Input
Amino acid sequence: MKKKSIKTYILTDCISFTFSVIIIAVIGLMQDVMMSIDNVVLLQLFTCTTLIAILMYFTESIPVESQLAATFIHFVDTALVILGVGGGIFKWFPWKAVYVGEVVAILTVVFIMTTLIITWQNYHLANSINEIIKERQHE
Amino acid sequence: MKIVIEYVAPPFETELTIKCSNPPDAATRQIIHSVQNISRDVIGSKEGAFHKFTLAQIFYIESVDEKTFLYLANDVFETDQRLYMWETQLEHTSFVRISKSTILNTDKLESIRSMLGGKMEATMQNGEKLIISRHYLSEFRHKFGI
Output
């Protein structure tokens, strides 16, 4: 595994953290079941998004051919950290079905948004590289 | 840097003369290294017979079941060198590692397209398709100065 790919995980970490804060803030305004966002929670949130990125770094080496399976492994990485560390250690929510369900719904949205943004970035990267290839072919 | 290109009617074996200071600067050293690598002869074996071709003819290099294969436009040859040895030797050329088992020649690339989840699919000039792993994407884009 190349060290350069760490940049991708740092980017994933930053995007996940940003969307987590936005979504929790929005849901917090809409209903009173989520924790409020203070300094400690922000740091806890950053710890979790970083742990997810680290976990993904290692689970990337699992030899799966299917893209769907690889995506699902990332989803499991995220769920393990949020439910285990967030719910279990940081006590963000009680371990009841309604709260666990709510958390799973949030991390599903965060996961989908992160995946879409990275895919969108790669789409533009592919276009840029294709333009360079065309230029080289015309030289 | 002054570049002079003189086109000559075929048949003519391409000849390259580099005039530079001694010792050459870093940029010139890289050019010399790249040219030496691209024009380098490569030996590959097929059905017990050895064949000679240039590095520039190779589309990609793949490792399968502890064996390493050189893929040309319409032919495949086996090589004694392991993939990591090729990777080291081809560091300053158009070749780049795109997965655990594959090194691709970017000069033989037709196009690429993004896939869900961060991977990319490379289409070679002979129509073959290869997967660029997320782990090696950063190195791949650097080959294009991005």
Observations:
- The beta strands of chain B are 41-46, 49-54, 60-64, 67-71, 76-79, 95-99, 102-105, 109-114, 120-124, 129-132.
- Chain B has one domain: 26-142.
